[in-house]
Design a protein that fits this description.
With 823 residues, this protein is α+β, with helices and mostly antiparallel strands. It is 52% helix and 11% strand.
């Protein structure tokens, strides 16, 4: 029976999918958006209908920065600096808080404030954008609309992608949404389709992606574009078309330069900061290789691509090789099956681009385990050594495989229609694959008890997880194995009936969409609701807005600290046995103190300043040897030491001044004020200073260690004084009475953008005690201002505005010129 006769035999209107595929573009677009929105509503109803939010440590860390920044904005000051943690750090160039930079945030803010959309609209919108982007990419690859919609939903529901947004990595999730658009626009440029408009749109997409603030994802997008260019160049060179290669190269370079120009308001300050941070301030100009590769995917863990529980499902059940993880990098059964079919059935050369892309991304994700690609890239590629977590690049693999699966479904439908299937994919062969799946399913079902006990014993014996959790992991592993085998068997049966032409193409697409969405929903649910699987309220990550406000409320310790109206810092001792203290252990790594206006030596930021990191390493190294680094604590203005257990015995220098429950507050009676005067100095090489700070003969109250000789030689501090009269995020004002020449030390982190003015005259700041600021003073009553002024921000802002305007105007001018020419 011919296709048109088969369709005529069906009840009118039965095959909605075929009607959708043949409908007007606006109808298909509306269906796409509605379908993706419905999927998001079904997946995260609490966020959509109850205005709940994701509240996790990384989200609260950002909220702490934002709470300080919002106050500054309300006072009319754009926050360039945050003094509340690490003795101060740049706020804007470190991307801790960058308001009014990302254009899409204006839209989401308007939607939330004026139209009362959910607070998480910004995240939901980016997931929706990602689904639409994959739809456009698949359509450009020749995939029909209905299958492209399925592919868009599959990418949107990838566990890896959902986990990024759910676990507080909103900038990562938002940046990923631009990847399919970049690929779509560049592919159209190379295919000579509306080149000028596509180049403009691609530059805007790449620029906005960088402005969203996750440079690592943006970097991977540029790698993806580079791979696309090489793939197309090889094809053109084989045809002898060198001119097209040069034209493509020119477009690629111009688009990338324009994108960087659009994002320069963020990129240039961040680049300047990176050279001074732990991401670029080391001996190699980047991260330590061991630290950078901490989250590398062991090749064995590729099993999680097809079987979610292959290595546990995060938290205490995870027994893989990464430090910890909360989710598998599952691809979905429909994606896996039709990727395999795509390789065999698709005749378009672009399938090889997607296969190569997925393969390269997977090999890079191996990191330190199979460093054949990662290590050369780490050592040779510009800026690559500033990124960590190699497994993050799997999002590129997932994008490529979802698009490839879309091509696979399309090719399968066409081959079934044309009766052009290979012998191994005809009904007889597929039947035995399905029968084999049923047999394996029954065997696993019968032997489930043995599998469960075996897995539990194996992971417990390996010391990966504890005994009771190992038992639970064994149960979950077995249940998921049964589900996975059943799912692949079901897909084999669906393919069997499709091959026999017992299923209409539209019905097949509907069935595949249903299976794909349910499959990914099942895996997504433990990621979004870990409290259900663990039956522990503490694991809940979707919470009410009230929970965030409660987090921001001061506790009894902060109430006590707020009774002291002087300028001081606290040292929150890590809640770990002495000898295992680390700057990454709470409460030292907690940012919450800044919400209440309490200054802390600790906190969390992924790219701290290198000079302060070195001092922290020195400080914790001393603590872990049982020696209190009192000199460092005192010079850093640490007046109070907070501990969750008794820390010091009776000590007149560190007396216990407050206790409630398990919280103890000790006062450092030798703590120096935020600004203080000294009259002795020593000049030495910078790398010797951290060790010298621990020497008992060094007294920070009397002496300062410098790397260069001051212009004013200090004599005495007798009769002199200095007092802070104004303290803001971007400015500090001090009034000083100086009897004889001396040196004013700011217990504030040194950073090149800080400038000092003494009675209106610019005076160079010195670096004191490795990481602080110092200023030589001559006798007299003096007004001193310490002001932060970004050296590149204004220039980069002008560049961004100009380039964006050019990128928008050029296609318009081109269109007008073409119209006039054609008249």
């Amino acid at each position: 029976m011919r296709k048109d006769e088969s369709r005529a035999a069906q009840p009118r209107g039965f095959d909605l999918i075929e009607r959708l595929d043949g409908s007007a573009p606006w109808k298909r677009g509306l269906t796409l958006v509605v379908f993706l929105a419905v999927v998001l509503c079904a997946l995260m109803p609490e966020l959509v209908f109850q205005n709940r939010i994701f509240l996790v440590p990384d989200a609260t860390a950002w909220e702490s920065f934002a709470s300080v920044g919002r106050v500054s904005l309300e006072e009319g000051t754009y926050p360039l600096w945050n003094p509340y943690l690490f003795c101060g750090m740049p706020s804007y160039p470190s991307q801790a808080y960058t308001p009014y930079v990302y254009p899409i945030s204006f839209i989401t803010h308007l939607l939330h404030t004026c139209f009362k959309t959910p607070e998480m609209t910004w995240l939901l919108l980016h997931y929706l954008m990602a689904g639409v982007g994959v739809y456009l990419l698949c359509r450009s690859l020749g995939v029909r609309p209905s299958v492209s919609i399925l592919a868009g939903a599959a990418f949107m529901l990838m566990p890896n992608y959902l986990a990024a947004g759910a676990n507080g990595h909103g900038s990562q999730a938002s940046s990923i949404a631009y990847m399919p658009y970049a690929l779509y626009f560049m592919r159209n440029i190379y295919r000579r389709r509306l080149r000028i408009p596509m180049a403009s749109l691609c530059a805007i997409a790449l620029g906005f992606q960088m402005l969203r603030g996750h440079i690592q994802i943006a970097y991977y997008t540029y790698l993806l574009i580079g791979l696309l260019f090489v793939f197309e160049a090889v094809h053109l060179l084989r045809k002898g078309d060198r001119r097209s290669v040069l034209v493509n190269l020119a477009f690629t370079v111009v688009v990338c330069i324009a994108a960087v120009g659009i994002a320069s308001v963020l990129v240039l300050p961040v680049r300047e900061y990176a050279g001074l941070s732990v991401r670029g301030g080391g001996a190699q100009g980047g991260l330590d290789y061991g630290y950078a590769t901490g989250w590398s995917l062991h090749p064995r863990e590729m099993m999680t691509f097809v079987f979610p529980w292959a290595y546990g499902f995060g938290k205490a059940t995870y027994w893989g090789e990464m430090p910890f993880t909360d989710y598998p990098n599952y691809l979905g059964a429909v994606t896996v099956v039709f990727c395999i079919l795509a390789i065999a059935l698709v005749r378009d050369r672009w399938r090889w681009f997607l296969v190569i892309t997925a393969l390269i991304a997977t090999i890079i994700s191996y990191g330190r385990f199979v460093p054949i690609l990662y290590k050369p890239m780490f050592e040779l590629l510009p800026f690559f050594n500033k990124f960590r977590v190699p497994v993050m690049i799997l999002v590129v693999q997932q994008l490529a495989l979802v698009a490839l699966a879309g091509m696979g479904i399309e090719a399968f439908l066409q081959r079934v229609r044309d009766k052009d299937l290979p012998s191994w994919l005809r009904s007889g062969s597929v039947k035995w694959i399905a029968v084999g799946g049923v047999i394996v399913f029954l065997l696993v079902l019968v032997g489930s008890g043995s599998i469960q006990n075996g897995v539990g014993r194996r992971v417990a014996a390996a010391g990966r997880i504890s005994g009771e959790v190992a038992r639970l992991a064994g149960e979950a592993y077995t249940a998921d194995l049964i589900k996975t085998i059943a799912l692949y068997t079901l897909l084999a049966a669906i393919v069997y009936f499709a091959v026999r032409r017992n299923i209409l193409p539209g019905v097949l697409i509907l069935v595949l969409a249903f299976v794909a969405v349910i499959d990914l929903f099942i895996v997504a649910n433990p990621i979004l609701h870990p409290e259900k699987g663990w039956k522990a309220e503490g694991y809940r990550i979707i919470r009410s807005v009230t929970a965030r406000e409660n987090y921001k409320k001061p506790d009894e310790v902060i109430d006590f600290l707020k009774t002291d109206d002087s300028y001081f810092r606290v040292f929150p001792a890590p809640a770990a046995p002495l000898g295992r203290w680390s700057h990454s252990t709470p409460p030292f790594s907690d940012n919450r103190f800044m919400i209440s206006g309490v200054f802390s030596l600790g906190g969390y930021h992924a790219a701290k300043l290198r000079n302060y990191q070195d001092i922290m390493d020195t400080m914790f190294g001393s603590f872990n040897k049982g020696i209190i680094p009192l000199n460092i604590l005192s010079m850093l203005n640490a007046k109070y030491i907070l501990a969750t257990a008794p820390l010091f015995k009776e000590n007149p220098v560190l007396p216990l001044v407050w206790q409630q429950g398990n919280m103890h507050v000790y006062e450092n009676t030798r703590a120096l004020p935020r600004v203080f005067l000294v009259d002795t100095f020593r000049v030495m090489e910078s790398d010797r200073i951290p060790g010298m700070l621990l020497v008992s003969g060094f007294d920070p109250a009397r002496e300062v260690l410098l790397t260069e000789r001051p212009t004013v030689i200090p004599e005495s501090v007798a009769g002199s004084s200095a007092k802070i009269v104004e303290y803001g995020l971007n400015r500090i004002m001090v009034r000083a009475h100086i009897e004889r020449p001396c040196i004013l030390v700011f217990s504030e982190i040194a950073y090149p953008d800080w400038q000092a003015m003494v009675d209106g005259a610019r005076v160079p700041l010195l670096t004191a005690n490795y990481c602080l600021r110092a200023l030589p003073l001559t006798p007299g009553d003096q007004e001193i201002q310490c002001i932060i002024r970004s050296r590149v921000l204004l220039t980069s802002l002008i560049i961004s505005i100009v380039v964006f305007c050019v990128v928008v105007v050029v296609p318009v001018v081109h269109a007008v010129a073409v119209t006039r020419r054609d008249r």
